[in-house]
Design a protein that fits this description.
Elements: H1 11-18, H2 22-29, H3 40-53, H4 59-66, E1 71-76, H5 84-95, E2 101-106, H6 111-123, E3 128-132, H7 140-148, E4 153-156, E5 166-170, H8 172-186, E6 191-195, H9 203-217, E7 226-228, H10 236-252, E8 258-260, H11 264-276, E9 286-288, H12 294-298, E10 305-307, H13 310-329, E11 338-341, E12 344-346
Parallel strand pairs: 1-2, 1-3, 3-4, 4-5, 5-11, 6-7, 6-8, 8-9
Antiparallel strand pairs: 10-12
């Protein structure tokens, strides 16, 4: 058998091996309407030969003929972040039955890579683009360029419906309210808070929710015990930031019985910092996170958190994308969609009543 540059078995190889024309082999293997006119014995021989040689259809060549790539770009802000993984898995599971190939790209928390990858997806004629990103960066203009090319866009963790982009996220303000109210119901009144980085879309609304719940409960948040995480560098930034903030809190000498962290990795850093200071969690101080990523569930102690249904959000993004592509192909008007996924409190061992007493139900 001749060796082709690509190394792949071709229709020509199959035709030569079974002694039929390339057109006959193509009709049979592509199950074209004319294949019913081909003798059953011939069809069986062609299929058996293709299987023996390890032939697979050339999807790239087929997409060139049909002018459809059958690929959907999936651009994540940082795949090493535990937040992204369940979202991406949900997207992949949602696309499995739709015969679209997800083209996964990792922006590594770098704006320049984010921009470059979006441009590459356009150049490679992706059918649609799903973005997993919660930056406050003004990526909307570039996403609009994608949409101008009649490529549907869905974003997870941001609301860009004002820019015509379908968006899936949670009500972060309500999440902040839920978190502080839970600590209040446990009996905590001296609560330290770690706010998220300024460039994160989630930061401001979560902080607004915390403030609203504190005001409704009549709690005064000590300014000396309100910290803010530095800019995001990598997934370890949250953990390191939580560790640093815990050290600062202890260093103030101000009393606190609970820490409400921006997210789960920050909460894990807080636990480490409190342990270094000789404080036990939750006996001496409760710690609460947000997101419900895997490390929060497997840590000791397990982190009480506000759960985002990340896998469900990814699956919904895939469902919306498939429908958007179908609407585009049918020349139907596409209006941006907005969905707020339901938040859920997950209570674990990192929180207790002041003095370390667990809440009983």
């Amino acid at each position: 058998m001749p060796q082709h540059k690509s190394g792949h078995v071709t229709l020509t190889d199959v035709a030569q091996a079974c002694g039929f024309s390339v057109s006959t082999v193509s009709i049979v293997l592509n199950k074209a309407p004319l294949s019913k006119n081909v003798a059953e014995k011939t069809r069986q021989l062609v299929c058996a030969t293709a299987q023996r040689l390890g032939y697979h259809p050339d999807a790239f060549a087929r997409s060139l003929r049909r002018r459809y790539s059958q690929t959907i770009g999936v651009l994540a802000y940082d795949l090493s972040d535990p937040y992204c993984f369940p979202v991406v898995r949900g997207i992949q599971e949602g696309l499995q039955s739709a015969k679209y190939l997800p083209m996964l790209m990792d922006a590594q928390a770098r704006r320049d890579l984010f921009d470059r990858y979006l441009q590459m997806l356009l150049e490679r004629r992706a059918e649609g683009v799903i973005v997993v990103a919660n930056w406050v960066f003004e990526e909307a203009n570039l996403l609009n360029d994608v949409r101008k090319n009649n490529v549907p866009v869905v974003i997870v963790s941001r609301d860009l419906t004002d820019h015509g982009v379908s968006s899936i996220l949670v009500d972060n303000e309500e999440g902040g309210v839920m978190a502080l109210r839970y600590l209040y119901d446990l009996g905590h009144r001296k609560i330290a808070v770690i706010r998220g980085p300024e460039e994160m879309f989630d930061s401001a609304p979560r902080w607004a929710g915390v403030q609203r719940a504190a005001g409704e409960a009549g709690i005064r948040l000590d300014p000396c015990l309100i910290m803010q995480l530095p800019s995001l560098v990598d997934p370890m930034s949250g953990f390191k930031g939580g560790l640093s903030c815990a050290r600062q809190m202890v260093g103030t000498g101000h009393a606190f019985t609970a820490v409400l962290a921006f997210d789960d990795l920050t909460a894990l850093g807080v636990v480490r910092g409190l342990n270094e200071a000789g404080l036990r969690v939750p006996e001496d101080c409760s710690v609460m996170g947000f997101d419900d990523v895997l490390p929060a569930a497997v840590a000791t102690p397990g982190i009480t958190t506000i759960c985002q249904p990340l896998g469900e959000m990814g699956a919904l993004a895939a469902e919306w994308m498939v429908k958007a592509i179908e609407s585009r192909d049918q020349k139907k008007e596409q209006k941006p969609l907005l969905h707020y996924a339901l938040l859920k409190l997950v209570a674990r061992m990192s929180t207790a009543r002041p003095g370390g007493k667990r809440k009983t139900r």
